[in-house]
Amino acid sequence: MSKRTVITFGTFDVLHVGHIRVLQRAAALGDRLVVGVSADELNISKKGRAPVFSQEERLEIVGNLKMVDEVFVEESLELKRDYVTQFQADVLAMGNDWEGKFDFLSDICEVVYFPRTPSVSTTALIEHIARIAPEPA
Ligand code: CTP
Question: Which atom from ligand 1 is nearest to the alpha carbon of 123?
Fold first, then answer.
């Protein structure tokens, strides 16, 4: 029987427990977990700031997690269908901040949303660190 491939996407900047849990849950759905790590340019255009860690660093961090089998740079948010096809994914898994957003792909793969881990996000961590360690005057 062929391997069941799961694909997921995200920035995974300033890695935190919410990231680990969504990756663990995604990995548990199959035999091979492929992660699309969003390009720096994509973050600059969507969030108006560059990630703390570059795409090369984020690829290295996520690619070295034990539940992750393969990583690639997600160059465009509009290419999900192409990535699912390219990596022959059986399942697309995302946190439920994306609930419903990828249902249009259910003709080519199973689409699963997991509850987000409460009270943690990269944005909140960056704001927290900035508060406790302000720039020197
Ligand atoms: N995620 C999660 N629980 C959290 C934070 C993120 O399950 N508390 C999931 C998201 O739903 C997504 C993946 O982790 O499937 C990558 O999310 P990402 O946007 O990189 O992380 P955030 O912490 O949400 O980043 P930001 O604050 O910059 O939006």
Answer: 27
Q: What is the CATH number of the domain that holds 43?
A: 3.40.50.620
Distance 128 CA to ligand 1 centre (A): 16
Count structural domains, the chain: 1
Report how far ligand 1's centroid is from the alpha carbon of 43 (Å): 13
Residue 137 lies in a domain: no
Find the domain containing 41 and state its range. Answer: 5-132
What is the distance between the alpha carbons of residues 60 and 115, in angstroms, rounded to a whole number?
26
Q: From the CA of 20, how far away is ligand 1's center (Å)?
A: 10
How far lies 4's CA from each of 87, 108, 130, 134, in Å? 11, 14, 42, 47
pLDDT digits (tens, 9 = 90+) for 73-129: 999 999 999 999 999 999 999 999 999 999 999 999 999 999 999 999 999 999 999
